[in-house]
């Protein structure tokens, strides 16, 4: 059930006789349910149960989210949702009651006709109510009501800790590793019997392509200087931090004026959201390209979406990202999943924790306080740069000795990614087939 604009997917799957259906949600006529759904969805989004030591950061994040949502919702509704979320964050019985209330009040029959025509053996969802895929929660609830087995393979590292509360409980949650399993048990009240550890498909490409000549591929593909070290800057979404251009200027200047002690070149990969049809920042992209034209050792490697007006990336882009991580000498980012990808590849990691120009927006420091990011920091698997001078100092330290923090990187990769054997994708596919065939699912 892709987005309506995903014509590339329809074309690809049509040849395989795969039928596509769009996700369904409330119509304008369902005004009462729309309002109730929006309120309870906001409550869930602002709810952060779990490890109490992260509570102050999560409360601050919820407060900021509340302020952001006031631009789109009535103040009284947003404030009421925030108060409810703070109670739910602390009391498991209240969370259970909220899920039951939502199931009753928001019962739908969006997929009744589809289930009658197709009779699914299993339903796999990409989200149980999180973020941009929140409408899948209606599909999940209807499938459970119809007695159809449901599976949720976790597709993003921050889903269990940073996207609020599950909108419905799937029959099976397929997690990356033991740490993520604990998150779903403690923060989302998922029974242990409903969780399977399968690893992460994201890591499969790093395992199966580990021994390829990645540095040479980068040098040839982007005409890099083989005598210069490669610094890879994987930008964060501009919706979270809008000063990527300024950071590129800082890094480029440091490489050219000798602040970076060894000859270096910078590869920048703009975040896919830069290409989003509504959230994209074409002006910033133009500034990045203009910088690259003026600085010979700055290279902008733009991801190529599968179709115009989307930010969806294909297999080749995943390979490119993997090669950038493996082929670089240092990976710089702002608390993104690239951290644990670089940890799998054992490449030095620096998180930028400052704003070149102070603003009233969300600084990178709050991103570092989210539980999944904080674990990387606490393990000393990545270094935090709280200023431009600290950033250059960390770069020089890692260029002198790339083995610094290597043991911590390997430890955090195992902790966060789980099974690193290159078989996570196959494990998920086999599990789905076992459930569809009504076999007793097992993990390997």
Structure description:
The chain has helices spanning 7-14, 31-45, 55-69, 75-90, 92-105, 112-118, 136-145, 159-162, 178-187, 201-208, 214-222, 244-257, 282-294, 315-327, 338-345, 364-368, 371-378, 388-400, 406-417, 424-436; strands at residues 123-124, 150-153, 172-175, 195-197, 229-234, 264-269, 298-300, 330-333, 349-352, 383-385. It has 3 domains: 30-106; 108-200 and 420-444, Rossmann fold; 209-417, Glycogen Phosphorylase B (Rossmann fold). It is globular, with a radius of gyration of 23 Å. The chain is α/β, with parallel strands linked by helices. The longest helix is centred in the first third of the chain and has 16 residues, at 75-90. Helix content is 48%, strand content 9%. The protein starts with 6 loop residues before the first helix and ends in an 8-residue tail after the last helix. Strand 3 (172-175), helix 9 (178-187) and strand 4 form a beta-alpha-beta unit. It has a 6-stranded parallel beta sheet, with helices on both faces. Strands 1-2-3-4 form a 4-stranded parallel beta sheet. The protein is built from 20 helices and 10 strands.
